[in-house]
Amino acid sequence: MRRLGLVVLTLVLAVPAVSFARPTPPGDGTLVIRNGRGVIVLQVKGAVIGWMASGKLTLTDNDPYDENAPLVRGRLRPQKPQQLNDATTVYKGQDIRYRMMDGSYRLRFEGTGIHLSAVGRGWVAFDGDDRFDSNGFFSLSGSPFEAIPVDPTERIKLQVAPPKPPRQPRRVNLP
Questions:
Q1: Strand 29-61 to strand 137-140: parallel, antiparallel, or no bridges (unpaired)?
Q2: Domain coverage including residue 86
Q3: Domain annotation covers residue 15
Q4: What is d(CA 106, CA 18) in angstroms, rounded to the nearest whole number?
Q5: Three-class secondary structure of residue 47 per DSSP
Q6: I want to staple 71 with a disulfide (CB 3.0 to 4.6 A). Which of 13, 99, 113, 152 is the partner?
Q7: Domain count across the chain
């Protein structure tokens, strides 16, 4: 009976220790988009800055009552953006410039000439415009640029790139 009690006590103490030993989630990832075309959906907790040549930006501020207000400017039509609710606003026009800092946002871009830089945690999904050969390029967490796919993608997670292996020191032959 004592052994059973000792085994149960050991398990009760070991389970919390094992749960605290889990690895922490990865840090912030980055996303860069150059000359994107089509539909791009970005969900990010962090910061986003960039511009779009022409199209529609649907911006959802996941916490609209915090002190971080998104900034969107450009040649908008109509002059006043369409407010769907407290959290979601639709901007249409040309030369749309945007900046969102320290918040949680969902951005849906539909247009051409999409340029952005984002840092934080979240995901991105692409659906390139199949009428064109090139839909622009993207880079995740410092990886080489890749073409934006024509077919819709699943959600691609923003995460820190795996660490690079340490460089081996050069051997110098001395005379």
A1: antiparallel
A2: 29-148
A3: no
A4: 35
A5: strand
A6: 99
A7: 1
| Start-end of H helices in the chain | 2-20
Torsion of CA 61, 156, 135, 104, to 10 degrees: 10
pLDDT at residue 21, as a whole number: 38
β-strands 88-128, 137-140 pairing: unpaired
Please report the pLDDT score of residue 99 as a whole number: 96
Q: Distances in Å between the alpha carbon of 144 and those of 44, 137, 141?
A: 21, 10, 9
Tell whether 1 is covered by a domain.
Answer: no
Quote the pTM value. 0.75
Instruction: Say if CB 29 and CB 141 are below 8 A apart.
Output: yes
For residues 137-160, average pLDDT: 92
Q: How many CB atoms lie within 10 A of CB 98?
A: 21
pLDDT confidence of 11, banded at 50, 70, 90?
A: very low
Mean pLDDT across the chain: 84
Say if 17 falls within a structural domain: no
Task: Quote the pLDDT of residue 79.
Answer: 83
Whether 115 is covered by a domain: the verdict is yes
Give the angle 6-7-11 at the CA atoms, nearest 5°. Answer: 115
pLDDT tens, position by position, 42-86:
999 999 999 999 999 999 999 988 888 899 999 998 888 999 999
Q: Helix or strand or coil: residue 34?
A: strand
CB atoms within 10 A of CB 155: 11
